[in-house]
Amino acid sequence: MANTTLPKPLRLKELSDYIDDNPFVTDEELAGEFGVSVQTIRLDRLELGIPELRERLKKYAEASYSQVKSLAGQEIIGQLLDLELEHAGLSLVEVTDDMVFQKNGIARGHILFAQANSLAVALIDAEVALTGLAKVSFLRPVKLGEKIVAKAVINSKNGNKYNISVTSRSDNEVVFQGEFRVFAVDRREVNG
């Protein structure tokens, strides 16, 4: 995209646009993309009033967690980044030591499934939402240190039944896909 020959005003504009399109990009990735040092990126972000990645994630998460009705915050696997009830959401999981098989450093499948499933359930604007059906595909092994961004979208709704697609990516590569049928359930049905 950009290179070191860009005049600073143009680089600042392109940097701002790039972060708008890729809000989870790190300073190191930006430095590589723009052909400048990490320190230059930090100074440019400061000049533009754009917070560092950790602060951007915190801002997204605070706004999103407050909307969730169907799960408690700690029941969502990964960090909730964006949520529009009854429409779509995003979450992030950074694969850590406790999420991988020690022998080969590959993420356990239930981590990716749990991230996708909990995000799908979080989309439902109901006190109780339960997964009734899941069809999933693991497209490639995920390794220690990868950052997985899951995006869930409600495709259709019929009464209390929701069909939700979830696509999980590492960088721009799809690593997991799932189709979930989630039901909004009346609390009285659950409590008897």
The side-by-side strand order for the widest beta sheet comes to 1-2-4-5-6-3
- Fraction of helical residues: 25-40%
Number of domains: 2
Q: What's the overall average pLDDT, rounded?
A: 87
Main sheet overview: 6 strands, antiparallel
Backbone CA Rg: 19 Å
Could you say which overall geometry the principal axes of the C-alpha atoms support?
A: globular
CATH topology assignment of the largest domain? Thiol Ester Dehydrase, Chain A
In short:
With 192 residues, the chain is an alpha+beta fold. It has six helices and six strands, in the order ααααββαββββα.
Describe it for me?
The chain is 34% helix and 31% strand. By secondary structure, the chain is of the alpha+beta class. The protein has two domains: 8-50, Orthogonal Bundle (Arc Repressor Mutant, subunit A); 58-191, Roll (Thiol Ester Dehydrase, Chain A). The protein is globular and about 60 Å long. 28% of the residues are buried.
